[in-house]
Amino acid sequence: MDFRTRQDDYFFWVRATALIVRDGCIYLCQSPDGGYHSIGGAIAVGETTEDAVRREVREELGCDIQVDQLAFVVENYFESDHKKVHRIEFQYLVTPLSEPNRMLVEGDTQRRCEWLPIDQLDTIDVKPAFLKTALKNWDGQVKHVVNREGTSNER
């Protein structure tokens, strides 16, 4: 069972995210609205964030990864399908050990994935929005980010 709960108007969960990076590009999934997002999902109760990111990539992209380094811890606040979401995310830089599937499979849903140049993310609709600049400016140290509806605050 993954850890998700609802408190009043908010849906809350903890998520592990793979920042799949290679040759100056990041592998992202296209949303139904045309934007892009990283690969990952909710952490199961009793599961480490590193194990969760490995499991999510294997389930969604059919490939194994090497977890390299925790890059960002994100407090992410946004709305999705008219629901308020508060999500804590552990975002890891990872290396794919084989070529990931071009389609992300999640239940009955399939979405296209592609390699996008990191230095062009600021021109693309990427969620969470802080990734547009934070990834290319990352200095190798874990960053704490508060991301609210497209605005972010690094700490």
TrEMBL record:
Protein keywords: Hydrolase
Pfam families: NUDIX
Gene3D superfamilies associated with the record: Nucleoside Triphosphate Pyrophosphohydrolase
Superkingdom as given in the UniProt entry: Bacteria
Coiled-coil segments: none
Nudix hydrolase domain span: 5-139
Keyword Amino-acid biosynthesis attributed: no
One GO MF term: hydrolase activity
Cofactor(s) named in the record: Mg(2+)
Descriptive protein name: NUDIX domain-containing protein
Species per Swiss-Prot/TrEMBL record: Streptococcus ovuberis
Upper classification of the organism: Bacteria, Bacillati, Bacillota, Bacilli, Lactobacillales
